[in-house]
Amino acid sequence: MKVYKFGGASVKDPSGIRNLERIVSSEKENLVVVVSAFGKTTNALEKVLYAFMNGGNGFRELLDDVYAYHLSVAEELFPADDPVMARIDVSFARLDDYLASAKRKDYDFEYDQVVSYGEIWSTMIVAAFLQNSGLDAEWVDIRGNLITDDRYRDANILWSESTARIRTVFNFRKIRVYVTQGFIGSTIAGQTTTLGREGSDYTAALLANMLDADVAVVWKDVPGLLNADPKWIPDARKLEEISYREAVEMTFSGAKIIHPKTIKPLQNKNIPLHVRSFLDPVEKGTVIKSETSLRHGLPVFVRKENQIMISILPKDFSFAMGENLSRIFYSFLNHGIKVNLVQASAVSINVSVDAERPKFESLISDLKTEFDTVYNENVELLSIRHYTPEAISRITDGREILLEQRTRNSVRFVVRKA
Question: What pTM was computed for the model?
Fold first, then answer.
C-alpha cells in the first residue's frame, strides 16, 4: 500500500487533474491520495478571512472569485448534470452562510474554519474525476478521522484516537483508492483544525505511518530535492538520495520542498519518502530513507526570508541562561512563535523568527516587563550544509552578517543586504 500526495501546483487546472489521474491509474497497488487545495486557493481564502474579520460583507466578492475558479475547473471536467457540481455549490453555500452568521471569534480559530475549505473542494473534484475515469475511488473527509488538540493553525495529532479511526476508515476491503485532504483535521468535539501552513506533506506522512505504508510519494513541480532553490541559485542540482537526518536538517533550516514535520512519522516506521516530479512521472526523483550509501558531496543551500532577529537582554545584567532562558522560551511558546535560530551569550540571547507581525508585537510587549529587546527586521536566515569557503562567499558576499553560527557540518548566517 502506498500514499501519494499532490500539492496545489499539480492540481491547479483541469490538465493537472488529468495528469494526476494518469499517475494514479498507472499504480496497481492500494493507494491513499492526499490532495492540497488548488493552486493559490489557500492564499485567496486567507484574503476572504481577512475581509471577514474586518467586518461587513467585503468577503463575499472575494469568495465569489474563489467559487468562479473552482467552477471553471469543474465545468471543463464534468457534464453540467454531474452530481459533483451540486456538491460544490452546497459546500460553497455552507461557507458563505457561516461567514454571514459567525461572530468572529479568535483569528486562529476562524482561520481553520474558513481556509480548510480549499482542501474539501479540491478533493471533491479530484475524487469525482477519478470515479468518472473508471477508478475504484472513494472520497473521505479526513475531519473526524485525523483527530487533533485545539491548537488552531498548528494542531497536534492525538495519535491513539487518530490511528484507530484511520485504520477503520481506510481499510481497502472494497475500495482500492481513497482520496482525502491534506493540511486539515478536527478536534474530538468536531471543530476543524489545521496542521500548519503547507501541512499536506505531514498528513501524507501521518497516514503512511498509521496505515503501515510501503512508501510515501510527494509529487512536486521539481525533479526531486535540489541542493538549493533554483530561483535563488540557478545551477542547483538534484540529490539522488539523502538520509532522514539530512532532510530534517534541511527542513529545519527552512527548505520549503517538504513540511518540517513530515520526516518523523516516516522515520518511526522506516518508510521511505520519494520526492518526484508530476511533470515527468517516469523519473525516479529523490529518495529519503534511514541510511544512504550515496555521498553527494554538494553544499546544500537553504534561504529563509522575511525574518526578524531579536536580541533579548536582562535589564539587571543577570545571566541570560538558567531561569531567564526558561522564562524567555516559555513566552515564545505561549505566543505561538517558532524559533528558527538561537544563540546565547552571558548576558543576551539572539533569536531569528518568522515575521508574523501580530504575534511578534504581542511577544515584545510581554518580554519588555523584564527584558530589554532590540530587533532587526527584513533579514534573512541563510544556511549551508557541507559548507566550503567558496559556498560561504557565494551567498554572503554583498550582505551584512548580523549573526554567524557554525558546527562541524553546517553554518548559518542572519544577514541583510549591505
Answer: 0.89
